[in-house]
Amino acid sequence: MVLSFVILILGFIALVWSADRFVFGAAALARNFGVPTLIVGLTIVAMGSSAPEMMVAAQAALADKTDTAVGNAVGSNIANILLVLGITALLRPLSVGSGILRREMPLLIIVSLGAWYIVSDNNFSFVEGILLLIGFAAFLLTLIIITKRSGNSNDDPFVSEACEEVPDNVPTQKAIFWLVVGMILLPVSADYLVGAAVDIAKYFGMSDLLIGLTIIAVGTSLPELAACVAGVLKNEDDLALGNIIGSNIFNILAVLSIAGIINPSVLDTNIAARDIFIMLGATLLLLIMSLSITGKRRINRFEGGLLLACFIGYIYYII
């Protein structure tokens, strides 16, 4: 069992690192081939933060562990709001920009309701996976069109960060090298991670869903935590919040779709009866805190503590 925990930790480290290298190589190569920065930023780079979840979902689905894949997507969204934003707001209150409330928040609520509808019958079909994937493509296309029309990517924190992270002046050979390294290590690390997680789940009598909601979801949310903490320390509150909302939209449209496409199946009833409502509740709580009846659009330390307490209570309840 100790070996499984070691493999799990090393798997997380390798997964996050290889995802970063893959995105770096792919984005640099696309930039060298003349693909516009906006396109690269909103496709390759923006998907980078969800690459670990996507690869874990694919490996879990291939191993006939669709509940783990779905649990990873839903659990990551719960962890992003309750754990990551909770800790971030405790460090420093988060101001909420009008753009976040006007564009990103309503979209997050819509896709979250879509996820609820899909799992509500305890069945995840291939067609539903395809519909989510189409929604993901439409989301990216809409972002690109809106940003091009506005002529300023800085209007949207999610778009702004994605474009700023596009590497420049990277030799093509170097870009290809890191692309290949990422392509090899991503599936390998995800495979070992899922295998170790399944071993741990069996040892403690945990279900496939529970391991996805807890260990894997929290582990794949750590990059978001690091990004949010770095954002607030630089006084980039919109960037931190935009990161979380963008990641949650990606988790539903891109990560969840993978599970349905690769291995459509009947789901654990707890997803529809419990976890999807926790995800919806966390999203609604974030909206309420962002609006604030006092007129100040910010998530304060008390609210951050409340989010974190909700996450601890949720984990205690399901375990």
End-to-end gap: 19 Å
Strand content: under 5%
- Element order, helices and strands? HHHHEHEHHHHHEHEH
Using DSSP, what is the number of strands? 4
Low-confidence runs of at least 5 consecutive residues: none
Indicate the multimeric state. single chain
Structural class: mainly alpha
Biggest β-sheet description: 2 strands, antiparallel
- How much helix is in the residues? over 70%
- What is the overall silhouette? globular
Mean pLDDT: 85
Domain Sodium/calcium exchanger membrane region: 4-144, 175-318
Subcellular location: Membrane
Transmembrane segments: 28-48, 69-91, 126-146, 175-198, 210-233, 239-264, 276-293, 299-318
GO molecular function, one term: calcium channel activity
Topology, element by element:
Elements: H1 2-32, H2 37-48, H3 51-62, H4 66-91, E1 94-95, H5 98-119, E2 123-124, H6 126-150, H7 157-164, H8 172-204, H9 208-233, H10 237-262, E3 265-266, H11 269-291, E4 298-299, H12 301-318
Antiparallel strand pairs: 1-4, 2-3
Helix pairs in contact: 1-2, 1-8, 2-6, 2-7, 3-4, 3-8, 3-10, 4-9, 4-10, 4-11, 4-12, 5-10, 5-11, 6-10, 7-10, 8-9, 9-10
Word description of this protein:
The protein is mainly alpha-helical and 319 residues long. The protein has helices at residues 2-32, 37-48, 51-62, 66-91, 98-119, 126-150, 157-164, 172-204, 208-233, 237-262, 269-291, 301-318; strands at 94-95, 123-124, 265-266, 298-299. It is 82% helix and 3% strand. Helix 1 packs antiparallel against helix 2, helix 4 runs parallel beside helix 11 and helix 7 crosses helix 10 (237-262). The protein starts with a helix and ends with a helix.
